[in-house]
Design brief:
By secondary structure, the protein is an alpha/beta fold. Strands 1-2-3-8 form a four-stranded parallel beta sheet, with helices on both faces. A two-stranded parallel sheet has the order 4-7. It has one domain: Rossmann fold. It has eight helices and ten strands. Bound molecules: uridine-5'-diphosphate (UDP) (2 copies). One uridine-5'-diphosphate binds near residues 131, 159, 160, 166 and 224.
Length: about 280
């Protein structure tokens, strides 16, 4: 939004599953829903976006000689049997499960990128992004950090799936952006894990949200979703060594920045309404 006034900025609404003709120097290929709720909603469209969409963007990169950055995912490791995950680990992925449209889709996207690199000389860069959160995230995105924050602000119980002992490692959005730009501008193909190694169980995350928003925020247990990975934590040695990158913002510092943005969007711009407790559940 804040770029609309810049005369050099152009926004094009386009479905990458359809071919696209553009003249560009660099392609950050992020297209694809990334929240499990959203990518499972229309799984065939999800895998088409990852496979046909990535093929089209690689075809475009080849035609115009652009550098191509693929945002892959920690989901390529599936429910990992190695902990923490290093880039050389091949993963433990169910090819026929409800998450497969996303994790197998991204694995195929990585394959396509490497084949265009080897076969057609396209300059590719591959990032494997771990769980990321921050301001301006969709309030109803469905992922755990945004869910807990929105629920605690609205005085609704935080929904913990399963026993809450599964782990994730949460990266603040500005750290990710810095990592992606370093990767694009650097000389290394990757893949690179981009994530924050700080690992939390979902119950610990709920506790951090309580500390940040409301010590009385309640927890409600819900059945877990199918094929939910038990553990996830990036080994970021490779990104540290080759990109000189590591995240700077720990969860306890990043969460308050997200909370003040969510507070404004949920309750409106008036700071004094922040204390209003009955604006819940719309
Ligand atoms: N493509 C595109 N924009 C371009 C160049 C290609 O969308 O500027 C699409 C093209 O429609 C094709 C895909 O990218 O479906 C792969 O292109 P490539 O040239 O690698 O393969 P080919 O067209 O020879 O099968
Ligand atoms: N989760 C949860 N409550 C929610 C949403 C998610 O406990 O309201 C759990 C989910 O079961 C998973 C973890 O949080 O173990 C991360 O889920 P998310 O959808 O954020 O991303 P994922 O890492 O699974 O892609």
């Amino acid at each position: 939004m804040h770029h609309f006034k810049n005369p050099s900025f152009e926004l094009i609404r386009h479905d990458v599953v359809e071919p696209l003709l553009l003249e560009v120097d660099q392609i950050y290929h992020l297209a694809c829903p990334a929240s499990p709720v959203h990518y499972k909603h229309n799984p065939v469209k999800t895998i088409k976006t990852n496979v046909v969409g990535t093929l089209n963007m690689l075809g475009l990169a080849k035609r115009v000689g652009a550098r191509f950055l693929l945002t892959s995912t920690s989901e390529v490791y599936g429910d990992p049997l190695q902990h923490p995950q290093v880039e050389t680990y091949w993963g433990n992925v169910n090819p026929i499960g409800v998450r497969s449209c996303y994790d197998e889709g991204k694995r195929t996207a990585e394959t396509l990128a490497m084949d265009y690199h080897r076969g057609a000389g396209v300059e590719v860069r591959i990032a494997r992004i771990f769980n990321t959160y921050g301001p301006r995230m969709c309030i109803d995105d469905g992922r755990v950090v945004s869910n807990f924050v929105a629920q605690a602000l609205r005085k609704e119980p935080m929904t913990v799936y399963g026993d809450g002992k599964q782990t994730r490692s949460f990266q603040f959005v500005s750290d990710l952006v810095e990592g992606l730009m370093r990767l694009m501008e650097g000389e290394h193909v990757g893949p690179f894990n981009l994530g924050n190694p700080g690992e939390f169980t979902m119950l610990e995350l709920a506790q951090v949200v309580q500390e940040t928003i409301d010590p009385n925020a309640r927890i409600e247990f819900r059945p877990n979703t199918e094929d939910d990975p038990h553990k996830r934590k990036p080994d970021i040695t490779k990104a540290k060594d080759l990109l000189g990158w590591e995240p700077k913002i720990p969860l306890r510092q990043g969460l308050p920045m997200m909370v003040s943005d969510f507070r404004q969007r949920i309750f409106g711009d008036h700071k004094e309404e922040d204390t209003a407790t009955n604006t819940s559940s719309s």
